[in-house]
Amino acid sequence: MKYSVLSKLSCDLFLLDKMAAPRVPELVANIDVKDAEYDCVVVVTNKVEKLVGNLQCLKAPIENYAKVDSIEDVVLIPTDEVPSKRLIWSPTGPLDRDYDDVRRFYDAGYKGMKRAMKAGSKKPLFVRPIDKTFPEAGNCASLGALQAAYVPLEIREDVPEKAKKVEKIGIWCDDLDRVQAGIKKLNALEIGRIVTRDIGGSDPERMAAPRVEEYVRDIFKDTNIKVEVISDVAVFEKEYPLLAAVNRAARMVPRHQGRLIYLTYEGEGTIEKTVFLVGKGITYDTGGADIKAGGVMAGMHRDKCGAATVAGFFKTLSELKPKGIKVVGSMSMVRNSVGSECYVADEIITSRAGARVRVGNTDAEGRMVMADVLCRMKELALDAVNPQLFTIATLTGHAIRAYGEDYSIIMDNGPARKINTSSDIQAAGDILADPFEISTIRRDDYEFHTGKSEYEDVLQCNNQPSSATARGHQSPSAFMIKASGLDKHGNDSDKPLPYSHLDIAGSSGPFPGVPTAAPLLALAGHFILPRV
User: Fold this and answer.
1) What confidence tens digit (pLDDT) does each residue in 108-133 have?
2) Would you say residue 280 lies in a domain?
3) Which terminal residue of the chain has fewer beta carbons within 10 Å of its beta carbon, N or C?
4) DSSP assignment, residue 56?
5) 326 Cβ partners below 8 Å, 6+ apart?
6) Span 321-367, pLDDT tens digits
7) pLDDT tens, 17-45?
8) CB 500 within 8 A of CB 411
9) Distance, CA of 254 to CA of 10 (rounded, Å)
10) How many CA atoms within 13 Å lie on the side-chain side of 49?
11) What angle do helix axes 103-118 and 137-149 make, rounded to 10 degrees?
C-alpha cells in the first residue's frame, strides 16, 4: 500500500494517499418478493400471519419449517418460492408486553443480516410487513441490518478485498412510496453513523488527533459544513488551559498532538434554533499519571465516541439540510498520555471561565477537555437564537454500573429541564431504537465539586473510580457547569442557558466489537428529522 509523508509533522506520521470514504450499501425500494436480482430474502416480523398479499408465498415454507424445528430465533429455510432458494426468518418476538419496544425490529434486522451474510448473500432483500405498533419499525429494522453490514475503516483501507460485506439491500414494503421516501432518510442517518463508527472505533494511531483532522476535512470537503481547526499549543494554553494540560504530554509526539475541531452548519430560512455540541475526543486514555492499571486500559481508544458522534451528526446534517436550525459542534481531540510532561493530581489550573480547578485524578481528563470548550460555546450561545448546549462523552464507568450497557444517559440543568430537553430526546430515541435513561443533577453534585480549600474554586474529582463513587455519573456535569461558568446562567440568571450532559459510556458499543453510533439517531430524530 502506498503512503505519503505529512511534511509538517514528524517522519513517523504517514497518511493514506486516499482514505476509504464512508459509503452506505445501495438501498433500493422493492415490491416484488420474487425479484431474481436478490440472492436471499430476509423476513422481519413478529407473526407469519402478517405475510399477506404478494407475501403469501412465504408463509408455507416458514410454517412447514415450524413443524420440525423452533422458529423463535433466526433460521435459514431452503425453498423454491424465491429465486435465490434462500429464505431467512428473523422474528422480532412478542411486541405487546410492557417491556417490548422498537428495538425488537432493530435486533431482528441485525440478526437477519448477519445470517444472510453468513450464508454468503451479497444482495439480500429485506421484507418487513407494515406494523402499526411502532411508526419507525421498518426503518429501525433496516438500520439494524446496516449496523451488521458496516465494515471498519481500517479494513476498508488495508484489506480492500473485504471492503464490502454487501453490495445492495432491497427493502420491500407494501407501501412503495413510503419506502422510497424513507430511503433518503436511511442513507443520511447511516452515513452519519458510519462516520461516527469510523472515528470512534478506529485504533489510537489511525485516529490520532491529526488524522481525525484529515478525515474530517475530507468528509466535509465541498459540503455546507464549515470546518475550523485549532492546533497551536500557544492558543490552547491561552484560551483552553484545561485542555492544554491534558495535551501536555501528547504534544511532545507530533503524531499525537491535539486538535480542537469546530464544525458549523446553518440551514436555510430564518434560524429558529441554535444547537451547540461539545464532544469528548480522547484518542487514547492511558489514565495519565494516574495510569489505568490492572488490565483496564484496553479499549480506551473508544474514549473519542462523543466527538465521533458530533462528526456523524454533522454528516447527517450535510445530507438532509434541515431548515431553520444552526448547529455549532466541537471535537476535542486530545490523547491523555503519560510521561515526564504529563499533568498530575494536585495541580491548580485556571479555566477559560476563570475558575481555579484543582486536579484530583488525571484519569478524569474528559471533563477537563470539555469544560473549556463548553465555556467557549457558552459565550457564543449568549448571542444565539434559542440556544441549547450539550456535552457528549464516554465519560464514566458509573454510567454502566447505573444503567447497563445499552442506554445513553441524559441530565439537564435548570433551564434545560424547564423546556423538557431530556424527556424530548428520550422520546425521540424511543422511536428510533436509541434509548435514553434520564438522571438528575442535584445539589450533592455541586457540593462534591466545590473547592475543599482556599486554594481552589472547583475540585475536578476525587481519587476514586467513578464506579466506586456515589453519583459517579451525575457529578461530572456539575463540574463542567462550574468550571465553564455555566453556573452563572441557571434559573436564577438574567440570561439562563439550557444545558444537558449526555454520558454514552454504556451505549457506545461493545469492546471488542463495533461501535453503535449512539446517540446519533436520537439527536437526529429530535433536531433534524422534524425540520426536513
Assistant:
1) 999 999 999 999 999 999 998 888 88
2) yes
3) N
4) G
5) 264, 265, 266, 267, 271, 273, 274, 275, 384, 385
6) 999 999 999 999 999 999 999 999 999 999 999 999 999 999 999 99
7) 458 999 999 999 988 999 999 999 999 99
8) yes
9) 6
10) 1
11) 40
Cell digits for 511?
A: 469492546
CA dihedral (286, 289, 290, 293) in degrees, to 10, reads 50
| Residue 76 Rama label (left phi>0; alpha psi -120 to 50; beta) | beta
- Total number of domains in the chain: 2
- 437526529: which residue's cell? 524
- CATH number for the domain spanning 526: value is 3.40.630.10
CB distance 94 to 127 below 8 Å: no
| Active site amino acids | 292, 367
CB atoms within 10 A of CB 456: 19
Name the residue type at position 230.
I
Looking at residue 50, which CATH number applies to its domain? 3.40.220.10
Residue 311, domain member (yes or no): yes
Residue 231: closest CA among 206, 249, 256: 256
Q: Indicate the residue among 157, 174, 191 that finishes a domain.
A: 174
**Cβ neighbourhood burial of 158 (10 Å; 0-12, 13-18, 19+):** middle
Do 164 and 121 lie in one domain? The reply is yes
Q: Which amino acid is at 201?
A: G
Contact 467, 178 (CB under 8 A): no
Looking at residue 356, what DSSP letter applies? E
Query: Which domain range does residue 39 map to?
Result: 26-174
Residues 511 and 395 in one domain: yes
For residue 1, is it within any domain? no
> Nearest 5°: CA angle at 528, between 514 and 127?
60
